[in-house]
C-alpha cells in the first residue's frame, strides 16, 4: 500500500484467504472495522506509526495471525471491541505506550495467547477483554493497580476464572 494512502473503507481485505502479509501505508490513520476479517492466511502485521485506532472486528477470525508489531506506533489511542477476536495463533502482545483504550472482548478466544503487556497509559478496558484465553495467560501491567476505568470483568478468561496479573511492570 503506497504511503500516500491515509484512509480507506471498512472491510478492505475481508475474506482474502491467500493474504499472508501486507505492508500498510505508514500514513494510514485508521485500520477500519472488519479490515482483515477472516483473512485466514495472514501471519504478521505491522501497525503503522500514524494509526490512531484499530476498528471493531478489524482482525476477527484471522486464525493464523501470529505477530502484531506495535513498535512504531506513536498515535494509537484505541483498539475497538473484538479487534483480535479468535486470532488463535497469537502468543504474545506488547501494546504501545500511546494506547489509552481497549474495547470489549478485544482478545476473546485467542486460545494460544500466553503473555500480554498493557502500558500505564491505558485508562479504559472493556468487559471480558480476554475471555476464552488460556488459563496460563499472564498479563503484565504498567499501572501499579487496576485503574478505575477498567471494567470489573476485564481479565476474566471464563465466567469464574481470571487471568494472572502482574502490576507495576515497566517495559
Notes on the structure:
- By secondary structure, the chain is mainly β.
- It has no helices and 13 strands.
- It has strands at 30-31, 44-46, 53-54, 67-69, 78-79, 92-94, 101-102, 115-118, 124-125, 138-141, 156-158, 161-162, 164-166.
- The strands form four sheets. It has a five-stranded parallel beta sheet, with no helix packed on it. A four-stranded parallel beta sheet has the order 6-8-10-13, with no helix packed on it.
- A hairpin with a 2-residue loop joins β11 and β12.
The total beta strand count reads 13
Structural class: mainly beta
What is the average per-residue confidence, as pLDDT, rounded to a whole number? 94
* Spatial order of strands in the largest sheet: 1-3-5-7-9
The low-confidence runs, each spanning 5 or more residues with pLDDT under 50, are none
Approximate shape: globular
Task: Give descriptors for this structure.
single chain, 171 residues, mainly beta, five-stranded parallel beta sheet, four-stranded parallel beta sheet
SSE map:
Elements: E1 30-31, E2 44-46, E3 53-54, E4 67-69, E5 78-79, E6 92-94, E7 101-102, E8 115-118, E9 124-125, E10 138-141, E11 156-158, E12 161-162, E13 164-166
Parallel strand pairs: 1-3, 2-4, 3-5, 5-7, 6-8, 7-9, 8-10, 10-13
Antiparallel strand pairs: 11-12
Summarize the structure.
The protein has no helices and 13 strands. With 171 residues, the protein is mainly β. The strands form four sheets. The protein has a five-stranded parallel sheet with strand order 1-3-5-7-9, with no helix packed on it.
Amino acid at each position: 500500500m503506497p504511503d500516500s494512502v491515509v484512509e480507506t473503507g471498512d472491510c478492505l481485505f475481508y475474506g482474502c484467504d491467500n493474504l499472508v502479509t501486507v505492508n500498510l501505508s505508514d500514513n494510514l490513520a485508521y485500520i477500519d472495522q472488519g479490515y482483515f476479517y477472516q483473512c485466514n492466511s495472514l501471519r504478521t502485521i505491522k501497525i503503522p506509526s500514524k494509526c490512531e485506532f484499530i476498528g471493531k472486528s478489524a482482525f476477527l477470525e484471522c486464525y493464523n495471525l501470529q505477530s502484531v508489531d506495535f513498535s512504531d506506533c506513536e498515535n494509537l489511542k484505541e483498539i475497538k471491541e473484538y479487534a483480535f477476536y479468535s486470532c488463535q495463533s497469537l502468543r504474545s502482545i506488547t501494546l504501545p505506550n500511546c494506547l489509552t483504550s481497549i474495547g470489549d472482548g478485544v482478545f476473546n478466544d485467542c486460545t494460544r495467547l500466553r503473555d500480554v503487556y498493557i502500558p500505564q497509559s491505558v485508562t479504559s478496558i472493556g468487559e471480558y477483554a480476554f475471555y476464552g484465553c488460556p488459563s496460563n495467560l499472564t498479563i503484565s501491567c504498567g499501572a501499579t493497580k487496576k485503574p478505575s476505568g477498567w471494567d470489573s470483568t476485564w481479565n476474566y478468561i471464563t465466567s469464574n476464572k481470571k487471568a494472572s496479573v502482574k502490576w507495576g511492570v515497566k517495559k
